[in-house]
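Batch job 17 of 40 flagged for manual review because the log was empty.
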Amino acid sequence: MPLGMKGEETRTKLVAVTPTGNGLLHRILAVSFATDEQSEEVIKTNIAGYVCVTDVDIDKGRMTVLSPQPGPLPKTLLLLSDITFMDAQ
């Protein structure tokens, strides 16, 4: 650990994210099998896969994702990461 950093600062923390503007655009989200977003289960449960956010429509409360699996996503939690994807076209 760096000098002056406390052990608690390095732990994974759960923070609810409300989509605003284009903050989620091009982000990679993990699709979690967790059923309860308020428990430690979210951190310990397996990940089903990953999706990339390609469009966010705040007015309609909708986002479009690029997924390797066809069809709608199952009823799961989406976990935000710091990773973004930009296609070089």
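Reviewer: the log was empty due to a logging misconfiguration, but the result itself is present. The domain at 18-84 is CATH 2.40.30.330 (Elongation Factor Tu (Ef-tu); domain 3). Unflagging and moving on to job 18.
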